[in-house]
C-alpha cells in the first residue's frame, strides 16, 4: 500500500517526535538524541512520546484539508467555492482522485502509523525496570488516538486495512481491506483498553478514561445501526453506548463550560469540557500547525501577523435556517452575519464588526495580541481544536436512552439534553425524539466536523431518512442584508444522494499501488 508503506520509512526511527505542541504540554529533546534504542527508558520518555501524538505535522494535512470540508461541506452545513475537490463534496460527485478524501485516508494512516511505532517501541524497547503501569498508560494513550483514527476511516470507507505493525509492510506491503464489523471490533478493543487503563485525571490536554469512554459510547452508538436497515438498532450496542456515555455524564465530575462562545477561544484551550483536542503551538511551517484561520472571512485586522484569511467557507441556507431567533449564542459563535460585533477580535482596536455577508466564526481567533501569541502566523493558530467534547457525549447519552423508541421523557435523557440547550440560552424540552436529538447535535456541534458522521450513522439503520435529509437541503450559500436572506446558486450541480453516497471510492493512487484493496474484504478476527 503506497501510503502506509511510505509512512513506515518516515516514522520508524524518530519522526514520531516531530509534532508541535505548547511547551507546557511537551518539552521534547532534540530529534538527534532520539531513537528507539536510546529512548523509551523512563516514564518521562513515555510522556514525551505520547505527547507527540496529539498534534503537529502528523495531523496537519488532515486538520487543514479534511476537518471542515468533510464534516461540514460534505454534510451540507457549509460550502466552499473555487476549490474543485470541495465542490465535489458539496455536489456528491466525489471520485477516487479527490485530494480531500485522499488526504483524509493518508492523514489517518499517518496518525495510526505513529501510534503503532509508539506502542511497539514501548513494548519492545522499554526496560523491565520501567513500571508496567507507566508503560500501559502510554500504550493506552496511543490506542485511544489510534481508535479515533480508525473510526474516521471506517465511517468514511467501511472496510479498510488494519495495520498494527508498520515494519511488516517492508516484506509484505500489499494488504487487504478488513470487513467493517471487524474494523469496529478492533476500534472497540483499542478504546476499551484505553478506558480501563487511562487515569481519571491528567494534565490538561491529555486523554483520560473519560475521553476513551466518551469515544467508546460514540462507536457503540454507531455500531448499533450497522447493517440494521429496518430502522431498528441493535439493543446490546445501544446499551453499551448508554453505559459508557452515562459513566462520563454521571461519574466524571466534569461539566459544561458556562459560556458556549468561550469554547472556541484560546484562553480556554483544554478546558474541562474538552475530552480530546489537538494540541497546536503557534509558529511553524506549512502543514505543521493549526491552519484553520485560513478559512477566516475577515481581513488582516482579525488575523495573525496581519495576514488575512484567503479560503472563505460559508454557511449554507440549510444551516442558517436551523437556528431560531433565540439560538443566537450558538449561531454567532459558529458563523458571522453582516453587522455582528465581536469584542474579542481585534480587542486592542476596539473589537470587530463583520462587514461581509456571512462566514465562519468558530476557529477564527483573531490577532497575535488577542491571543498573547507573538509567534502565531496564519498557518499556525494557537487554538487547540476539540475533536470530542462533553456536550457531544451528553447528546450521545440522550440518544442511546431514546434508542429504538419513538419518544422518551426519561429523566436522565432530558437532564443532559437540556443542559446543552440551557447553556445556549434555549428553553428546555419535556420530551425527546430522534429528530430533536439529531437537530440539536447539528446545531451544537456545527463547525466541528461531526455532522457527516451523524448522517452516516443514521444511514446504517434508516438509509431512506438519511438520503431524504440530504436531498431536501438547500446547499447553496446566501447574501445577508438587514436581516434579509437571499439564497445563492450552489457551487455546482447537486447530484441526488442515494445509498452509495455514504461510502466513498478508495483513493485511486492507493488502489494502483496496492491492487489488493480492490479485492473483497477479509476477516481479521
Q: What is the topological layout?
A:
Layout: H1 2-11, H2 43-51, H3 57-65, H4 67-73, E1 78-79, H5 84-91, H6 99-125, H7 132-157, H8 180-197, H9 209-223, H10 235-251, E2 274-277, E3 314-315, H11 317-322, H12 328-334, E4 335-337, E5 341-342, E6 352-353, E7 358-360, E8 386-389, H13 390-402, E9 407-408, H14 411-423, E10 432-433, H15 434-444, H16 451-461, H17 463-472, E11 478-481, E12 484-487, H18 508-513
Antiparallel strand pairs: 1-3, 2-8, 4-7, 5-6, 9-10, 11-12
Helix pairs in contact: 1-6, 2-7, 3-4, 3-6, 6-7, 7-8, 8-9, 9-10, 9-13, 10-13, 13-14, 13-15, 16-17
Main location: membrane
Organism: Niastella vici
Protein name: Carbohydrate-binding protein SusD
Amino acid at each position: 500500500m503506497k501510503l502506509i508503506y511510505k509512512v513506515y520509512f518516515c516514522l520508524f526511527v524518530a519522526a514520531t517526535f516531530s509534532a508541535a505542541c505548547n511547551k507546557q504540554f511537551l518539552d521534547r529533546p532534540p530529534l538527534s538524541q532520539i531513537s528507539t534504542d536510546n529512548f523509551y527508558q523512563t516514564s518521562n520518555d513515555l510522556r514525551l512520546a505520547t505527547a507527540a501524538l496529539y498534534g503537529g505535522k502528523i495531523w496537519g494535512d488532515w486538520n487543514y484539508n479534511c476537518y471542515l470540508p468533510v464534516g461540514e461541506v460534505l454534510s451540507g452545513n457549509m460550502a466552499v467555492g473555487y476549490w474543485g475537490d470541495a465542490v465535489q463534496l458539496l455536489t456528491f460527485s466525489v471520485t477516487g482522485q479527490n485530494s480531500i478524501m485522499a488526504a483524509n485516508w493518508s492523514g489517518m494512516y499517518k496518525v495510526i502509523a505513529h501510534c503503532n511505532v509508539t506502542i511497539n517501541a514501548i513494548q519492545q524497547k522499554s526496560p523491565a525496570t520501567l513500571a508496567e503501569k507507566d508503560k500501559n498508560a502510554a500504550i493506552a494513550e496511543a490506542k485511544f488516538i489510534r481508535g479515533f483514527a480508525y473510526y474516521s476511516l471506517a465511517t468514511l470507507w467501511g472496510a479498510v486495512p488494519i495495520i498494527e505493525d508498520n515494519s511488516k509492510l517492508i516484506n509484505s506491503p500489499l494488504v487487504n481491506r478488513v470487513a467493517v464489523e471487524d474494523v469496529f471490533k478492533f476500534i472497540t478493543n483499542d478504546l476499551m483498553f484505553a478506558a480501563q487503563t487511562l487515569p481519571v485525571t491528567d494534565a490538561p490536554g491529555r486523554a483520560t478514561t473519560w475521553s476513551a469512554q466518551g469515544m467508546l459510547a460514540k462507536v457503540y452508538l454507531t455500531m448499533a445501526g450497522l447493517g440494521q436497515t429496518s430502522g431498528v438498532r441493535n439493543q446490546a450496542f445501544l446499551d453499551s453506548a448508554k453505559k459508557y456515555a452515562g459513566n462520563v455524564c454521571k461519574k466524571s465530575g466534569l461539566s459544561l463550560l458556562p459560556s458556549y462562545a468561550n469554547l472556541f477561544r484560546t484562553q480556554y484551550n483544554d478546558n474541562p469540557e474538552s475530552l480530546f483536542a489537538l494540541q497546536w503551538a503557534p509558529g511553524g511551517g506549512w502543514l505543521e500547525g493549526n491552519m484553520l484561520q485560513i478559512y477566516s472571512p475577515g481581513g488582516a485586522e482579525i488575523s495573525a501577523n496581519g495576514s488575512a484569511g484567503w479560503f472563505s467557507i460559508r454557511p449554507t441556507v440549510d444551516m442558517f435556517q436551523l437556528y431560531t431567533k433565540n439560538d443566537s449564542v450558538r449561531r454567532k459563535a459558529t458563523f458571522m452575519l453582516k453587522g455582528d460585533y465581536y469584542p474579542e477580535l481585534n480587542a486592542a482596536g476596539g473589537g470587530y464588526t463583520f462587514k461581509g455577508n456571512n462566514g465562519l466564526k468558530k476557529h477564527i481567533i483573531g490577532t497575535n495580541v488577542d491571543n498573547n501569541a507573538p509567534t502565531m502566523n496564519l498557518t499556525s493558530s494557537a487554538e487547540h481544536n476539540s475533536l470530542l467534547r462533553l456536550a457531544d457525549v451528553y447528546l450521545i447519552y440522550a440518544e442511546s436512552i431514546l434508542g429504538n423508541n419513538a419518544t422518551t421523557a426519561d429523566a436522565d435523557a432530558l437532564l443532559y439534553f437540556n443542559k446543552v440547550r440551557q447553556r445556549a440560552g434555549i428553553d428546555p424540552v419535556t420530551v425527546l425524539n430522534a429528530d430533536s436529538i439529531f437537530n440539536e447535535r447539528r446545531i451544537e456541534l456545527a463547525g466541528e466536523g461531526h455532522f457527516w458522521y451523524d448522517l452516516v450513522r443514521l444511514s446504517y439503520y434508516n438509509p431512506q431518512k438519511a438520503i431524504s435529509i440530504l436531498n431536501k437541503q438547500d446547499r447553496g450559500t446566501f447574501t445577508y442584508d438587514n436581516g434579509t436572506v437571499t439564497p445563492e446558486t450552489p457551487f455546482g450541480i447537486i447530484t441526488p444522494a442515494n445509498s452509495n453516497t455514504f461510502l466513498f471510492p478508495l483513493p485511486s493512487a492507493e488502489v494502483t499501488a496496492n491492487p489488493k484493496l480492490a479485492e473483497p474484504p477479509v476477516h481479521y478476527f
